[in-house]
Amino acid sequence: MIIGIDASRANKLNKTGTEWYSWHLIETLKTIANPDDKFLLYTNSALTGGLEKLPDNFEKKKLLWPPKYLWTQLRLWWELWCHPPEVLLVPAHTIPFLPLPKKIKVVVNVHDVGFKRFPQLYKKIQVWYHDLTMHRLKQRANLIITISEFSKQEIIDLYQVQPNKIKVVYLGFDGTQFSPAVNDDSDLLKKYHINKPYLLYVGRLEKKKNSGNLLMAFALAKEVKPELKLVLVGNAGNQFEEIKKIINNYHLEQEVIITISEFSKQEII
Predict the structure, then answer these.
(1) pLDDT per residue over 154-209, tens digit each?
(2) Domain annotation covers residue 264
(3) CA distance 162 to 142
């Protein structure tokens, strides 16, 4: 079987949730996939970050020809049309809008549809584009993979996708890097002016990530444990100014430490 994978997200230098999901998915497939199957990694640049280390049954397909923009919609689509795999796996929920060969079985990951349930938390262009994409997936995807029973039900309720077309595959974790053992690095804490005890949040800082409720819960926790600090690690996202207003309204300016993209991955671990 020939399986094509959109590796463009996994190959990004600065990764967040969807990009890391894609990267780990590809790296795991390298170790568990049937060696008789052939995997094609579609990318818009040279593979890096370990992706370039390919088993014998993996092949990179670097699609660099023009146009520069709309890579998924034009360059990837043209490759799929000219050289269709048997299965197309897209770890992020964007597939070409133009028609794909009928022989291709399309498998796509949809992590959530929060943009549809809470459009006020997203930019209008994001809501429009993601909504258009979901209607395309409903029409063309053979299988939608999502991360929870809740997300599956949201896709069913909001887009009327047939339940047998959605498969729940729960998120995993890397047990070699993450464990209950705590390894406090005093030099690292000093570097970022962090005093114990503290709570750590890692993720984009915006209202749709529930950062606002986290801050209000932290304010309540401070009433019981006044010495507690909150460390927020992540990029400033949509409506970040609202997050800063909550900090000010609860007088947490000296209690919340915001380190936007300063930590390396190894420092966070």
Answers:
(1) 999 999 999 999 999 999 887 777 766 666 667 778 877 888 889 999 888 887 88
(2) yes
(3) 11
Alpha-carbon distance 80 to 85, whole Å? 7
Model pTM above 0.85: no
Q: How many CA atoms are closer than 13 Å to the CA of 244, on its beta-carbon side?
A: 8
75 and 124 co-located in one domain: yes
DSSP, res 236 = B
CA 110 from centroid of its chain's CA atoms: 10
Q: Supply the range of the domain harboring residue 256.
A: 186-268
Tokens of 122: 């997203």
**Cβ atoms 85, 3 nearer than 8 A:** yes
Residue entry with tokens 């887009």: 159
Residue in the structure block whose two tokens are 């998915």: 25
Q: Count up the domains in the chain and report the number.
A: 2
| 8 Å CB contact between 38 and 1 | yes
